[in-house]
Amino acid sequence: MSQPAAFDLVSFGETMLRHSVAPGERIETARETELRAAGAESNVAIAVSRLGGTAAWLSKLPDSPLARRIEGALRTHGVTPVVAPSETGRVGVYYLEPAGEPRGTNVVYDRSDAAVRSATPEELETEHVEAARVFYVSGITPALSETLADTTRTLLDRAKAAGTHTVFDLNYRAKLWSAATARETCEPLFDAVDTLVVAERDARHVLDREGDAAAIAADLATTHDCETVVVTRGAEGAVAVHDGDVFEQGAFPADTVDAIGTGDAFVGGYLARWLDGASVSESLEYGAATASLKRTIGGDVVTVTPSEVEAVLDRETGAIDR
């Protein structure tokens, strides 16, 4: 049997179809929507691919036009879909209603009975996870079903045992589960994680951590023996603790067209640079620049080139500590 292709990054999770109404429209009265593929794990894989790495997306889909739309969208960006076929289930959908204050942007999920919710390690081509340089998954995946929570654990363990660098982004979604359930499910996974990413607000609300971002990162790194912990702080940038050293990175200014997917762009940019041999500090800077570009682009995906990221870095470093 031939060995699987060794990708720089393999991600695992659900990719949905996103229907967006125009800014100022309401879902209940809009007559048109814009259709795009969207999912945290595939967003990160696309970012890595577009920024010079090789990437695959592991999932489970039915045989349907909607599923083929998702696979085609990923291939357009250079990502290889590695999909387990499903005779049951469907493609998940979400609806986006962009708005300013006081109403605010609203997301409506329609993802029950999605085929991916029943995905088990036995039906997935997990050899790609074991051969990859990096395996990435977010907390959205175990939130979708008990089966996926078990599968996520198994894939992290197999990746860790194979020497694949494991990356987990808590990526808490209150519409999917409670903070208590998220903590109960996700914290046991952290011991199999090399690089942990968590938003500061989620570290406080979900993980019940206290102190500033650096203290939170240090606490998580020590408690779970993570090589690197990155705490993101939105407009204030990010803080990372790596082997006991603290690195801070400011956010780059951006005119926001669509903020959805900014966090995924940050993680994808960070990993693309790290995979290229850069330090944690350099990778944070690259991730921040990638995230700023995403805010100027419609849809969930950061459709950029390495030269565009480098142009942002050339204009303004944004670094607090390099």
Write a short abstract of this structure:
The chain is α/β, with parallel strands linked by helices and 322 residues long. Helices cover 35% and strands 22% of the residues.
* Alpha-carbon Rg, integer: 18 Å
Span between termini? 46 Å
Number of helices: 11
The chain-level structural class is alpha/beta
Within the largest sheet, what's the order of strands?
5-4-1-8-9-10-11-12-13
The CATH architecture of the domain at 1-135 can be given as 3-Layer(aba) Sandwich
What is the CATH topology assignment of the domain at 1-135? UDP-N-acetylmuramoyl-L-alanine:D-glutamate ligase
Order of helices and strands: EEEHEHEEEHEHHEHEHHEEEHHH
CATH superfamily of the domain at 1-135: Ribokinase
Q: Which regions contain 5 or more consecutive residues with pLDDT less than 50?
A: 318-322
Shape: globular
Helix/strand layout:
Blueprint: E1 9-12, E2 16-20, E3 34-38, H1 40-50, E4 55-62, H2 65-76, E5 79-86, E6 93-97, E7 106-110, H3 127-131, E8 134-138, H4 140-143, H5 146-162, E9 165-169, H6 179-186, E10 195-199, H7 200-205, H8 213-224, E11 228-232, E12 238-242, E13 245-249, H9 262-275, H10 280-294, H11 306-315
Parallel strand pairs: 1-4, 1-8, 2-6, 4-5, 8-9, 9-10, 10-11
Antiparallel strand pairs: 2-3, 6-7, 11-12, 12-13
Helix pairs in contact: 1-9, 9-10, 10-11
